[in-house]
Amino acid sequence: MSVTTAKGFTAAGIAAGIKENGNPDLALVVNTGPRRAAAGVFTSNRVKAAPVLWSQQVLATGELTAVVLNSGGANACTGPQGFQDTHATAEKVAEVLSGAGPAVGAGEVAVASTGLIGLLLPMDKVLPGVEKAAEELSEHGGEKAAIAIKTTDTVHKTAVVTRSGWTVGGMAKGAGMLAPGLATMLVVLTTDADVPAGDLDTALRDATRLTFDRVDSDGCMSTNDTVLLLASGASGVTPGTAEFTEAVRAVCDDLARQLIGDAEGASKDIRIEVVNAATEDDAVEVGRSIARNNLLKCAIHGEDPNWGRVLSAIGTTQAAFDPDLLNVAINGVWVCKNGSVGEDRDLVDMRYREVTITADLAAGSESAVIWANDLTADYVHENSAYSS
Question: Is the pTM for the entire model greater than 0.85?
Answer without folding.
Answer: yes
